[in-house]
Amino acid sequence: MTGAARGIGAAVAKRLAADGLAVAVLDLDETACTEAVTAITDAGGSAIAVGADVSDEAAVAAAVDRVATELGAPTVLINNAGILRDNLLFKMSVDDWDKVLGVHLRGAFLMSRATQKHMVDARWGRIVNLSSTSALGNRGQANYSAAKAGMQGFTKTLAIELGPFGVTANAIAPGFIETDMTAATAARIGVPFEEFIAARAAETPVRRGGTPADIANAASFFVGEAAGFVSGQVLYVAGGPTD
Ligand code: NAP
């Protein structure tokens, strides 16, 4: 479970642990994972903290080896680690472009490539990738929307290539979810987070902002045995239709 120290990742990690999985809480900073790991173990679950940059090939290989040794072969992967570097195209630096594509797309590629071997050997696996409604286009997010649309194509190809080995791949595309990431967006544009949430809720058919638990519910479904015939799909979890 990548990017699992906080936000959506931490909620999904806790939910999958409650579903009975042993969870590797992987994030950039291993110590930042302690809170999620403690919450899982205090609730009777099993988890370890793993520090790794998902865009670093060697770090990913070492992290996946460590997970296999300490928890057993990883047969479930949630590619959730993410960053924002929003800017209008004419102001977007090459570094902003490369960093965002690097964490989301290169990171998901490296993590999927490193873990698929374990899934293929087990003839069972689940990969869930975090896309976004931004995949449909969003002002100020040329890098992020390209990465999140890329996650959808990547997911469908994994579904085709790995399906014969009992591995499904699906994507969750959240709309607005209340996390540090969206709090940072509100801060960047100078709007108090509560106001920002209220504005997003007003334009959402179900009239509320999304929560990490909404995404954890979808992830729990895709990972579960009951979703074995669901693969290559993109589930928008956005409180309403998206297009
Ligand atoms: P968040 O609160 O910012 O958490 C993201 C986590 O990913 C952080 O713990 C971050 O670590 C970690 N991370 C960043 N770069 C990493 C790297 N190279 N290697 C490993 N971990 C890394 O974000 P969130 O809102 O929970 O979002 C989670 C995912 O959902 C992201 O893929 C995001 O794009 C997607 N999403 C979110 C929303 C939303 O409204 N929140 C909507 C659609 C999609 P640091 O704290 O050290 O940076």
Automatic annotation (TrEMBL):
As one GO molecular function, the record gives:
3-oxoacyl-[acyl-carrier-protein] reductase (NADPH) activity
The portions of this protein that span the membrane are none
Biological process per Gene Ontology, one example term: monocarboxylic acid metabolic process
Superkingdom of the source? Answer: Bacteria
SUPFAM superfamilies according to UniProt: NAD(P)-binding Rossmann-fold domains
Instruction: Tell me any Pfam family this protein matches.
Output: adh_short_C2
Give the Ketoreductase domain ranges: 2-175
Record SMART domains? PKS_KR
Q: Which family does it belong to?
A: Belongs to the short-chain dehydrogenases/reductases (SDR) family.
- What protein does this entry describe? 3-oxoacyl-[acyl-carrier-protein] reductase MabA
Q: Organism, per UniProt?
A: Williamsia sterculiae
